[in-house]
Amino acid sequence: MRTVAVVGTGLIGTSLALALVRRGLTVHLEDADPDAARTAASLGAGTTDPADGPVDLAVVAVPPALVGRVLADCQRRGLAHRYTDVASVKAGPRADVTALGCDTTHYIGSHPMAGRERTGPLAARADLFEGRPWVLTPTADTDTETLNAALEMVALCGAMPIVMDAGAHDRAVALVSHAPQLLSSLVAARLEHADETAVRLAGQGVRDVTRIAGSNPAMWVDILSANAGVVADILDELAADLGETVTALRALEAADEAGRRSGAAGIEAVLRRGNNGQARIPGKHGAPPTRYETVAVVLGDQPGELGRLFGEVGALGVNIEDVAIEHSTAQQVGFVQLSVAPSAVARLNTALREHGWSVRSV
Ligand SMILES: NC(=O)c1ccc[n+]([C@@H]2O[C@H](COP(=O)([O-])OP(=O)(O)OC[C@H]3O[C@@H](n4cnc5c(N)ncnc54)[C@H](O)[C@@H]3O)[C@@H](O)[C@H]2O)c1
């Protein structure tokens, strides 16, 4: 593959173009907003000059609702030999592409599982897709050369291809991304009018659950509009679970022993199902989840403290598998939770204490 056209030079289109230019490809940039295309070109993402003839691959990087129309227009113009898109949902654009009578043999849907909170070409980064999954959704009529062109694009961006059915993709992203976003927002929304004293008690649990509630509403309205039915199905199931959980909690307040026992069993079942689901989330580098242990260290809130701690752990030959920082709301300190292999815990605890660190058991 030597020549590519990127149609829609926002965050994703420009990031892709930057990655491909870096690998020596010629990239032609187009956008309904000429400023966006010019900005992308000025960042080194390619040229706004049209190609002389059909390019090897055209990538449609516009909002999901426009993919069908833009693809139809590109094909009418004979812009490329093969086509793909990068929309975050796949079934809707696929249905539009079919309804508009596009050539589906030379088109394959795709979704890079990477992004940022910001949109537009100025937020683009050439390394945005490195090491990230990139879903491809071929159908029975996608020809092999088109699949190969998409695989080559993914490889050039340093991403990992995952082939899926469009409907299965949309259910998957609803489950792991879209429904969690709404639940996080709903939990955070409970805090909007809560007492200041209650909010000040916020600890790591509520911070973890509400982290993504800070997302951009306009961007999420777009995403959810394109996958609304599937997300609503998952929320319906969650609503049924919530109903059962409320019933179990009410039973816990019951006067009779049998009622309380059934309530406790109901709550325990919910928590156990949660344990089981959480244990299935892949660990580092997509490996099966590994049980690390946590060493918690109290750290003063001053420059260089974190570097000093990491340096000492490194000098002990211990690999930090993951790290989380919990900030004290009342004092100028934080608790750094280092995830390490269980075999390293005792040695790390002893050595850090000897070096004057305050190590907490968790
Ligand atoms: N933002 C993310 O995190 C993310 C992640 C993965 C996939 N995606 C998908 O990538 C696509 C682009 O998203 P983005 O974040 O880059 O958005 P963006 O708003 O940064 O860019 C979209 C660009 O498309 C242009 N455009 C709109 N209509 C057009 C048309 N008819 N012809 C040509 N250009 C047109 C806009 O002017 C804009 O520059 C979307 O389908 C989105 O679902 C986004």
Automatic annotation (TrEMBL):
E.C. number: 1.3.1.12
Residue ranges constituting the Prephenate/arogenate dehydrogenase domain according to the UniProt record: 2-282
EC class: oxidoreductase
Species the sequence originates in: Kitasatospora kazusensis
Pathway named in the protein's UniProt entry: Amino-acid biosynthesis; L-tyrosine biosynthesis; (4-hydroxyphenyl)pyruvate from prephenate (NAD(+) route): step 1/1
The protein, known as: Prephenate dehydrogenase
Family, per entry: Belongs to the prephenate/arogenate dehydrogenase family.
Keywords for this protein: Amino-acid biosynthesis, Aromatic amino acid biosynthesis, NAD, Oxidoreductase, Tyrosine biosynthesis
Reaction equation(s) it catalyzes: prephenate + NAD(+) = 3-(4-hydroxyphenyl)pyruvate + CO2 + NADH
Domain ACT stretches: 294-362
PANTHER family referenced in this protein's UniProt entry, alphabetically: PREPHENATE DEHYDROGENASE, PREPHENATE DEHYDROGENASE [NADP(+)]
InterPro entries: 6-PGluconate_DH-like_C_sf, ACT-like_dom_sf, ACT_dom, NAD(P)-bd_dom_sf, PDH_C, PDH_N, Preph/Arog_dehydrog, Prephen_DH
